[in-house]
Amino acid sequence: xxxxxxxxxxxxxxxxxxxxxxxxxxxxxxxxxxxxxxxxxxxxxxxxxxxxxxxxxxxxxxxxxxxxxxxxxxxxxxxxxxxxxxxxxxxxxxxxxxxxxxxxxxxxxxxxxxxxxxxxxxxxxxxxxxxxxxxxxxxxxxxxxxxxxxxxxxxxxxxxxxxxxxxxxxxxxxxxxxxxxxxxxxxxxxxxxxxxxxxxxxxxxxxxxxxxxxxxxxxxxxxxxxxxxxxxxxxxxxxxxxxxxxxxxxxxxxxxxxxxxxxxxxxxxxxxxxxxxxxxxxxxxxxxxxxxxxxxxxxxxxxxxxxxxxxxxxxxxxxxxxxxxxxxxxxxxxxxxxxxx
Length: 341
Prior knowledge:
By secondary structure, the protein is mainly β. The longest helix is centred in the first third of the chain and has 18 residues, at 15-32. The protein contains three helices and 19 strands. The strands form three sheets. Strands 2-3-4-5-6-9-10-12-14-15-16-17-18-19 form a 14-stranded antiparallel β-barrel. Strands 1-11 form a two-stranded parallel ribbon. It has one domain: Beta Barrel (Porin).
């Protein structure tokens, strides 16, 4: 399926138009030569700004209620850009010895292919020692996919001289496709170090919008490993607002044939945060953040280094988080020091 902005082509093709149509036909042949297509999840650059989306084991890790919003505009230089938004809430629940939360995600590709998800999460917190805790997280997700057929064009619609004038024989459903899925994760941490693993789409659901038994679109499992630590550089006192720290972090993700390695570091002084990341063979990332006891705001920009760099316009991402007050409790176990963006 290719989104094409040409309504018609008259007379002889110019070289530019001929190249465009050639690419279109090649891509269509490539796509429809496979009976099984593999979909891919949207990924936020500010991984830890929405920790529950990254790994369900983070649910309730903040103890007090936490509300998070994310917005990402990827490759705005293209008409077929990717726009993703997410809202999440989680909190610790002593009666359940862990935390509860939910995540709502909306993803649009070129304003044509739309995906909406609603997930419920739970994590169990096991305090192994006073300094080491393990969280076990599970997630149930309802996914709805839909497509705007009026914005799609196919190879069999092309006339060699007149352009897109025929009707396609490919059958796309008008009705949204609804599927259920499950995910799980584990997280271990001390006061200064954390490491986690998550596996999303354990059921590998079929999200195909094609009305045929020969085509399906399987969502392959997404595996994520993440780890990091924090170094305290200087501080007037242990709880000073001017605390200065450095937090290096590593995140690796694999989904089907797609894999991504992210290396980065956050520098924090008082309420201000500055982050630098490198996504292997894809982009350099800079993050600016402001964090107080109850509010966190972040902005990041992906400077694309691949062949798309000139035309893509990079990627913009904004996050907002609110941490609500809860009654202080006696500190028995140490908390995790994890990046917030």
